[in-house]
Specification:
CATH topology of the largest domain: TIM Barrel
Family: Belongs to the NtaA/SnaA/DszA monooxygenase family.
Strand content: 5-15%
Protein name: LLM class flavin-dependent oxidoreductase
Pfam family, one: Bac_luciferase
Organism: Rhodococcus rhodochrous
Structural class: alpha/beta
Mean pLDDT: 91
GO molecular function, one term: oxidoreductase activity, acting on paired donors, with incorporation or reduction of molecular oxygen
Strand order of the largest sheet: 1-2-3-4-9-10-11-13
Largest sheet: 8 strands, parallel, barrel
Number of helices: 14
Oligomer: single chain
Distance between the termini: 13 Å
Shape: globular
Length: 429
């Protein structure tokens, strides 16, 4: 049987709106390299496969999210490479606002300096604020951003392949440094990019870095099926998650790719207590740190709707949600919330508590045994190949998971007990 994949997602302020206010939170570490070193060390103690940095290149509209990802991902992970030994280093990069040649050399450099542990999460970015930082008065249409992303990834792969395995010779006696016949220009000229190549950074230790993707739209799924080693997904319902994974694999089989089936890793916010009651009490405590008026404002911004006049204990106004064809941001978030809010018993207060003002990631709230059982259920029934772990409070939420849930997953026989060899590559093979 395959082994559960776990990525540790870095966010110094935690993954709930008010989590940074909790007594055990350490938001002061958001700009401190030692904090990130400790976070990475804790993640390696939990045998996580990857250390994942999410990022949008703009200050968020929500002033409680200004420190969401305040450090540039590739620089941060490069700084963490020497203090880690096994964990993958996965940086989020926007294909809309960067050039593939620069990113190819940056990620290839990280891959060399980390001994083959680099990965890149390619996103198309649905943030108008980010667009204005790069000269866009308005974002390019969704379809155009994905067309650019397709060409972008194609160029990345070709650049990483522009050095052959036998390119480096280093024969001092003969005076031969490289086999120049194995360093080949890519001569790319497309709709969005013209890149002569070859890359100035030699071939990566394992051929190329890993590729992640986060889109859930039809175009996003097609891109993932064509290129990705793994997808960072959003899911609330186990049946929907199985359908998503199956559809992705069907798309992959229908294409020309000979890669292993793309791994599907939903975001998960585990809230762990010694008992179910203690975990639920912690969940309520975390929720209370985010005042309803702030939660409503953030939810309105996230979903692009007006919640004026809706009482906290009134049914959530599903009819106010925009059509998915009009959504420019995270389509997966809209879809997840739409599925969640269906039914007259779902109130605005309930939505604020469970989605935390628009954070539509799955939550398992309970004892270590409960959380481990739910993870096992999703994994063994084909809903997920693993999870991207997003602690509600950092770093204490990660510590709780590592200390109390990971051993139970190991006892179940679905999670490794040690890193072995090229652990990152093996996890995604």
């Amino acid at each position: 049987m395959s082994t559960l994949i776990l990525n540790s997602v870095i966010r110094a302020i935690g993954f709930t709106q008010g989590g940074w206010r909790h007594p055990s939170a350490k938001p002061e570490g958001a700009l401190d390299l030692d904090y990130y070193r400790e976070y990475a060390a804790l993640s390696e103690r939990g045998l996580f496969d990857g250390l994942f940095v999410a990022n949008t290149p703009a200050v968020p509209d929500n002033d409680w999210a200004y420190l969401f990802s305040p450090l540039e991902p590739v620089s941060l992970l490069s700084a963490l490479a020497p203090s880690t030994s096994h964990i993958g280093l996965i940086a989020t990069v926007s294909s809309t606002f960067t050039h593939p040649y620069n990113i190819a050399r940056q990620i290839a450099t990280l891959d060399h300096l980390s001994g083959g542990r680099a990965g890149v999460n390619i996103v198309t970015t649905g943030s108008e604020s980010a667009g204005r930082n790069f000269g866009f008065d308005a974002l390019p249409p969704h379809a155009d951003r994905y067309e650019r992303a397709d060409e972008y990834i194609d160029v990345l792969l070709r650049l990483w392949d522009s050095w052959g395995d036998d390119a480096i010779v280093l024969d001092k006696a003969a005076g031969v440094q490289v086999n120049t016949a194995s360093v080949v220009p890519i001569d790319h000229r497309g709709t969005h990019f013209a890149v002569k190549g070859p890359l100035d950074t030699p071939r990566s230790p394992h051929g190329r870095p890993l590729l992640f993707q986060s889109g859930a739209s039809d175009r996003g799924r097609q891109l993932a099926a064509k290129y990705a080693d793994a997808v960072y997904s959003v899911a609330q319902d186990i049946r929907q998650a199985r359908d998503f994974r199956s559809s992705l694999h069907a798309l992959q089989r229908g294409g020309t790719s000979s890669r292993p089936p793309v791994k599907v890793l939903p975001g998960l916010i585990p809230i762990v207590g010694s008992t179910q009651r203690e975990a639920e009490r912690l969940h309520e405590e975390i929720s209370s740190l985010n005042p309803p008026e702030r939660g409503i404002a953030a939810l309105e911004q996230r979903l692009g709707i007006d919640l004026g006049g809706i009482e906290l204990d009134s049914p959530f106004p599903v009819d106010r949600l925009p059509d998915l064809s009009e959504v420019e941001g995270s389509i997966s978030s809209h879809e997840a919330i739409r599925r969640f809010v269906t039914g007259p018993q779902i109130t605005l207060r309930h939505v604020l508590r469970v989605t935390d003002a628009g954070n539509s990631h799955l939550r398992f709230v309970g004892s270590p045994e409960f959380v481990a059982d739910r993870i096992e259920e999703w994994f063994t029934t084909g809903a997920a190949d693993g999870f991207n772990i997003n602690p509600a409070i950092t770093p204490s939420g990660l510590a709780d998971f590592v200390e109390h849930v990971v051993p139970l997953l190991q006892e179940k026989g679905i999670y490794k007990r040690a890193y072995e060899g090229a652990a990152l590559r093996a996890a995604f093979a």
